[in-house]
From TrEMBL:
Protein name, UniProt field: Choline monooxygenase, chloroplastic
Function as written in the Swiss-Prot or TrEMBL entry: Catalyzes the first step of the osmoprotectant glycine betaine synthesis.
Species: Pichia sorbitophila (strain ATCC MYA-4447 / BCRC 22081 / CBS 7064 / NBRC 10061 / NRRL Y-12695) (Hybrid yeast)
Cross-referenced Pfam families: Rieske, Ring_hydroxyl_A
Family: Belongs to the choline monooxygenase family.
PROSITE patterns linked to this entry: RIESKE
Signal peptide: none
Gene designation per UniProt: Piso0_004030
Keyword field contains Iron-sulfur: yes
Entry EC number(s): 1.14.15.7
Required cofactor names: Fe cation
Residues covered by the Rieske domain: 49-148
Keyword terms, alphabetized: 2Fe-2S, Iron, Iron-sulfur, Metal-binding, Oxidoreductase
Amino acid sequence: MASSPVTANVQPVGEKPAETLSEHTLPARWWVSDSVFEFEKRAIFNKSWLFCTHSSRFEKPGDYYRFSFTGISFFIIKSKVDGQIKAFHNVCRHRAFPVIRKDKGSSVVLGCKYHGWSYNSDGKLTKAPHFDQVEGFEKEQNSLFPIRTHVTRHGLVFVNFSNEKDVTPFEEWYEGLESEMDAFDFSDYEYHMSYELDGQFNWKTLIDGYQECYHCPTAHPGLNSAFRMETYDVVPKTRYCRHYAEIVRNDQDETVEEESSWMGFRKQKSRKKISQKANPGGDFDGLWVYLFPTNGVNCYSPAWYSIRVLPQSATHTILQYDIYTKKGLDETTKTEFVDFLQKVELEDFDLCQFTQRNLNQGIYTAGYLHPTKERGVLYYQKLVGDMVQKHLELENKEKRQINPAAVAPTNAATNAASKLEDICSQIDCQGGNNTPELW
Ligand code: FES
Ligand SMILES: [Fe+2]
């Protein structure tokens, strides 16, 4: 049996573990089991800070974007009331029809197309046809369900679905992240484009590959010839990891063989030069960050991009990429960046597709992880194991499912509904044990 990930020996920031063979992956069933995935929603996703987008995409009040993490549909909008960026569940308070029907748009009046209720850009109910005459109906009690939001000083927008009182504050969840991001001037970049990949694999299949470059010499020939793979390092921080690799500076004193590529990564003298082009980004070293559980922000000189890994089921995950290019960057360099990025991402995508097919067969159970080359994988899998274990203990103690994202009843009507909800819980309990078999 595989060793418990909860006891995995993950080193503190900046320290490298001794290269001792001791750690395994989590059990392979965690990559295929629907019950584990359902449990991960409650244990991880519904209480984690999740990166969504950048504030520069909200130019005027009413600008909104729709998202879906683990099946939870929500939207982020710039409020006309106070100019702040806010998030709401995409659920009408009347009978639960989705209020937003497009992936993006702009409107300071959000009208539900079912019975005509309307909300403003601050989520407040402004119109409920014929309910004005209904005694006891209070518009104030029927605003859209808000979602906790945090916008960093660099404009990175995060949400947290948890409605529990003890939500870990953003600054504590990702301690040190905001200052880490000071190394990059996000204000000098503008939104360029997005694209999406639809993968038949578990979200962890993607993150496994994302959190190491052990596979890069084998699987990314283009990347391998663009920077020094031997310098690649993944350093766990606080629920995020910083990735490093040595880059080429656009140094005029360097020999032709060391002239930088567009990406700015240093090529080895012995390697064949892949481009004569000068580095358009100057001497910025790059800032690549994995954000537990499923997101990444990767900053280069010509552009930065984000990846949202959106789990849909145990074996279905959507990957969404947003690319922001440096203001004033020429179209050719933009195209080169996008082409390069998409080539690497498609290589990773294929790795995930084929790996998951084998995981689905149930032959493989667990494998060794390299203590240094795969310590980013060890780090995030330990977080997954810890959060799942902790939540399982809580649910077992309270003998009920605990969904941190559940919204508490707010008025008399929902209090009545809550009594009926209790009946459902009792029926569910009689129907069987919902606790998943995790290990
Ligand atoms: S569900 Fe939205 S108005 Fe009825
Ligand atoms: Fe990769």
